[in-house]
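Sample intake sheet
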Amino acid sequence: MSWIGKVVGAGLGFWIFGWIGGGIGLILGHFLDRFLGRVKRVGGQLLQVQKSFFDTTFTTLGFVSKADGRVSEAEIRATEAVMTQMRLTKARRRDAIRAFNRGKAPGFDPDATIRRFVQVCGSQPTLLRVFLEIQIQVAFADGRVDPAEREALLRIAQALGVSETDFARLEALLAGHYQHGPGAPTTAEALENAYRALGVEKTASDAEVKRAYRKLMSEHHPDKLIAKGLPDSMVELAKERTQEIQKAYETVTRSRQTSR
């Protein structure tokens, strides 16, 4: 229990106003101690969230990358790109690599790992979605999501409490940016993915499309995500997500303007 505020408040109050001032200072110091204690708890919780987010991100990336039986060079490059986007120091990069290796090792239990992650970050559903987006992003490293990887991603989504509908929306959001090669979406599929990414039907009005777009942009705003526990180093990833949302919105609006 903190007592510094009480001692300082009572001492100053007594010195300036005597016994009455000391009593008032003691009361004010009590409230100051409570405030400082709350700030300390919130700061500690934020650090815990950031640590859990970092560790779980890279162990789970190892698990997803190995889901199809091997970790490809493309997946390693994609994971390294995440590290670069996060501006990790050499020491933190080594921590990330160790976490990745734990995740790809036989016997790794993703369900227990995700449960611990949800216990720490579950009050921030936006953080859980960002975490899942990173997993999907690296799964697209080979140009498409392998069926075994998709099954692993769905397992993770279920453990996070993310519905299949929301998972499909996130997958569609990232497909237009990361899916390439023979499996790249056609123009019609890209438009369908854009609608799915925004979470609206093709029959939605222009106003409904704009509302969905603004809601997603607000949820993925870097400042808001950092306030909820996203590490500062992941600002570039957050900005990338807003660019993908912007691209989906532009795809939909451009198609509607052309068809009129």
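Comment: The chain has eleven helices and no strands. Residues 4-259 form one domain.
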